[in-house]
Structures are given as structure tokens and as C-alpha cells.
Amino acid sequence: MIYLKLLYIFFKIGLFGFGGGYGMLSLIQFEVVEKNHFLTVEQFADIVAISQATPGPIGINCATYVGFTASGNVFGSAVATIAVVLPSFILMLILAKIFVKFQKNIYFTSSLRVLRMAVVGLIAAAALMLITEESFGKNYSDIFSWAIFAVTFAAVKFLKINPIAMILIAGVFGLLLY
Q1: Number of H helices, E strands in the chain
Q2: What's the CA gap between 169 and 135, in Å, rounded?
Q3: Which sign, positive or negative, has the C-alpha torsion 57, 59, 62, 64?
């Protein structure tokens, strides 16, 4: 019975938990602490802290730990974890089928092109928000930060070096310089 409840609760959370893992936390707390009394508030706070400290998305980690604590075994963890990711998995399968069906449709490809430009704009906006006095010095005059930025940008754009490798290299230079 506990496994069906976990499946239902975490499937519902995965389906309606917008805003990522942190957005799911209030739903999880309501369902497992207040409504079903699987955990105490203190246990839930401990689970959130552990979920933040372990690698991976906090919502999925939290589901895993809640599943284990509520059921007392690993099967409960598996049920809760699978249930919280299942709605996203199903949605991606549906979207993949739609993409395959309409990939040659001019209206569909035009829509994707517009979405691609919007995503580039959002990423650029996020990058601009990171250009602060704390990162680039008073009056944005820290020449080393600008040099790391310029070299990293050029290496990725023109030399086609892997962006992840450049992030790691830039991080090492940042550590050495500061």
C-alpha cells in the first residue's frame, strides 16, 4: 500500500511540480509531512539538507530519500524516484514523436528557429547578469577577468574547443589568479 501511495504522490508532484526541484519542495513537504504524515518536519528538513549536499537534482534526490524513509527500504526509494521523473519522461517521448512527425514541416521548423533565437537571447541575458563589479572589478576594470572571458569565448567560437573543457581551464586560471 505504501508503494502505491508513493507512486501516486510523486507522479503527481512530477506532473505538477513546475519550477524545478526547488519548486517541488513545497509540494513534497505538503504531501509527505502535512497530508500523509510519512515524515516529521525535522526529518524533512534533514532530507532537504542531504538532497542539497548530494550530486543531482534536488527534487529527485528528495524523492529518493523520502521514498526510503517512508517505506524503510530501497524499493520505496526506487518507486518514488521513478514516479517523480516519469511525467517528464513521458512528455519527452511525446515531444520526440511530434518532432519526428513534423520535422520537415516548414511551420514547425520556423517555430523551432524562433525558439532557438529566444533561447540564445535568454542565455545571453543570463551571461550579462553575471557581468558584475564583483566578477570584473570596480568599474569593470579587472583586465584578467576580461582576458579569461575573451580567450574562452575565442577558443570556443573560433577554435572550436569543447566548451566544458574551456570552463574547466578558465576555472583553473581564475583560481590561480585570484
Answers
A1: 9, 0
A2: 17
A3: negative
- What the block records as the C-alpha cell of 140 is 569593470
Sign of CA dihedral 51, 57, 59, 60: negative
- Kindly report whether the global pTM for this prediction surpasses the value 0.85: no
Indicate the SS3 state at residue 1. Answer: coil
Say what the pLDDT of residue 127 is.
77
Mean predicted confidence (pLDDT) in 87-99: 93
Record the cell numbers describing residue 110, joined without a space: 520556423
The reported pLDDT for the residue numbered 110 is: 92
Residue that is written with C-alpha cell 514516479 in the block: 83
What's the burial of 162, exposed, middle or buried (CB within 10 Å: 0-12/13-18/19+)? exposed
Give long-range contacts, CB 8 A cutoff, 24+ apart: 32-37. 32/66, 32/70, 36/5, 36/9
